[in-house]
Design a protein that fits this description.
homodimer, 299 residues, alpha+beta, oxygen-dependent coproporphyrinogen oxidase, 7-stranded antiparallel β-sheet, two-stranded antiparallel sheet, 10 strands
Chain lengths: 299, 299
């Protein structure tokens, strides 16, 4: 087994481990949560077996809905697809974990994370990140979330760049550049030439998702909330859907490459609302919250 | 005033008339409905005044949300835009009425219609249509809706083609080609060379929207509904959002051409739900309804 194959194998193991650990955290947060698990398989572009995935979906009173998915896919690809990556590649290999958590309580933020390794033809790289979508202006939580990522990325010197990439990426350009949430970190097509180091950074990032989210989520879990809090959350979830369906490249890529629609769109919130010219009440926490959906230096 | 300018003017008058008449029908259906009216203006590609529109948004107990919009826009366009229409056109002119009605009662279908006239450079054409998105399997209503359009289009011989275009267009390709609703009629880029006749057909179509929808909607308006009916409606409205944000060319065109986002996305339902692998109860009316979201000969 060559070095690349070795890291592909251990990154897949890492991805599965994160999936299990995040699912355990979800069950701790919401012991009554209902879990649906689906193992699925796919064919590649030529109709041969091309790997598959494991989708885990949660529905509950505290976790309104969540999806924690892993996949390992490979095989022949549509040549048009390969060309996008600047070569005449006709094969791909990819593995990753992708997760989304939409809590029921508007005081607990939504979160999304993804850690992946991709190979198209001879080229390969790591990518992914984690971001937070809060609905209540607990600034200390936002600082805490970014603080974890700054610390995780400190040794690599990549926090600032990955934070800015995230700010730019998760933006509703059709809504006057309002961000989906308060950002986090995001990177893609990362290959420094040192596979061992790149793998180690990807592994480290994946290990920091749980400490970045669950302590703050659990702290807010049993807070009382108002009807206005909920309405604001449902409105912002509408914006979340707009981002995912209009702008998210991962969603587009998945649907256009004939991915498993229900696994891809598990990212959508269970409930949401659309309101013409929605405006939070003047001087409310929700009006305050609107200020945070803009790029900001957190730590 | 030349002949084209004359028809542009009277088509705009027609569009405004339909807007007023549809708004009157909405108020009759839901006398307590709350109306927000916004007159807006836009600049063209070079920053000069480029027309605007009149957005009317309804929120109520019987009409959960509705939008009835007209616009008249003109001026310089991005040359890239002009090239899409096969020329080196740098000016455009367009007027139309666009409407969406999402009733509260799941027994009353959602409807959408649009009637427009567009000129890019020297080329001009008519387009639009009307379609129905029911949530309860009242087959007689679907036949009635299509019957009105077949009759309206009878003299022109275009019903079958426009019905098929509608079936194909309003389809969620990422959901195994499930249709958004039960179709209706749709046409675009229509210019037979006889402006007077083309105008007359466009006018006739716009006059048939009210009789195609309101009689059947009013007949169902006060029916009792169940929790399951509502859940199914909210689920199907999720599919409606998926279509509008992932596939609808009008929405994309509007957002990419820097249109008024709130007027464009007024098409989204006030509430909706997303459920992983949603399936209606076996032998329920909702399972029956699923069969109708496929192309079918109605009349």
């Amino acid at each position: 087994m060559n070095q690349l194959d070795k890291y592909k194998e251990i990154f897949f193991q890492q991805v599965r481990k994160i999936q299990d650990e995040v699912c355990d955290q979800i069950k701790l947060m919401d012991p009554e949560v209902q879990l649906t698990e689906d193992q699925w398989e796919r064919n590649d572009f030529e109709g041969n077996p091309g790997g598959g995935g494991l989708t885990r979906v949660f529905l509950g009173d505290k976790i309104e809905n969540a999806g924690v998915n892993t996949s390992l896919v490979f095989g022949k690809i549509d040549p048009k697809f390969g060309q996008k990556f600047g070569g005449d590649a006709d094969t791909m290999w990819a593995t990753g974990v992708s997760l989304i958590i939409h809590p029921r309580n508007p005081r607990v933020p939504t979160t999304h994370a993804n850690f992946r390794m991709i190979q198209i033809g001879e080229k390969f790289w790591f990518g992914g990140g984690a971001d937070l979508t809060p609905y209540y202006p607990y600034e200390e939580d936002f600082k805490e979330f970014h603080g974890v990522w700054k610390k995780a990325l400190g040794p690599y010197g990549h926090y600032q760049k990955m934070k800015e990439t995230c700010d730019t990426y998760f933006t509703n350009t059709h809504r006057d550049n309002e961000m989906r949430g308060i950002g986090g970190i995001f990177y893609d097509h990362f290959n420094s030439g040192n596979l061992e180091a790149d793998f180690e950074m990807a592994r480290t990032l994946s290990e920091h998702f749980i400490p970045s989210y669950f302590p703050l989520a659990n702290r807010r879990l049993n807070e009382e909330w108002t009807e206005e809090d909920e309405e604001f959350m449902l409105h912002r979830r509408g914006r979340y859907v707009e981002f995912n369906l209009l702008h998210d490249r991962g969603t587009k890529f998945g649907l256009e490459s004939n991915g498993r629609t229900d696994s891809i769109l598990v990212s959508l919130p269970r409930r949401c609302m659309y309101t013409y010219q929605y405006a939070p009440k003047p001087a409310s926490p929700h009006e305050k919250m609107m200020e945070y959906y803009r790029p900001k230096d957190w730590v």
